[in-house]
């Protein structure tokens, strides 16, 4: 599962007003991956897809060889219509759905926990739902970055569109770094091994 080109997508909403929101943690992780690869994002539309993209190699394969070729992508559309850019990039680069990794916020996981899966439901996440619809399959990899449930009676939609709270902000760099590690594990060791490492560790 580590052969060939990968597409790694970080979900979020466009513009500085949303940049620090819980909903944008996927794009924070993509920025960290680009930093590690020593590259930056281009806003030029590739294959007509509305997304900022960067091409790189990520991670190190067992044995020490450089990790696989990767297209990093941050859709420039709003979260709820992420499917179009993802499907456009999949078609343009000829990536199989199994080589698509989507990094996103997850309400059903405690803050700072990270879980990996392929397929399954979207858990009410409209960005994932739109990607599933656009790709015609659920069988892509999800890196689920836990943001926890909203406190009290706060609406979930309002909660994810707020910035991380003070105590969370202190831990956020660690969380982003750990999620980037999880992406690299998937790319270099495959999903099952990455799940074994990550889910056993936590």
UniProtKB/TrEMBL annotation:
The keyword Hydrolase applies. GO terms for molecular function: peptidyl-tRNA hydrolase activity; tRNA binding. GO terms for biological process: protein quality control for misfolded or incompletely synthesized proteins; rescue of stalled ribosome. Its EC number is 3.1.1.29. It is found in: Cytoplasm. One of its GO terms (cellular component) is cytoplasm. The record marks 13 as: Discriminates between blocked and unblocked aminoacyl-tRNA. The active site is at 23 (proton acceptor). Catalyzes the release of premature peptidyl moieties from peptidyl-tRNA molecules trapped in stalled 50S ribosomal subunits, and thus maintains levels of free tRNAs and 50S ribosomes. Hydrolyzes ribosome-free peptidyl-tRNAs (with 1 or more amino acids incorporated), which drop off the ribosome during protein synthesis, or as a result of ribosome stalling. This is Peptidyl-tRNA hydrolase. It comes from Cellulomonas aerilata.
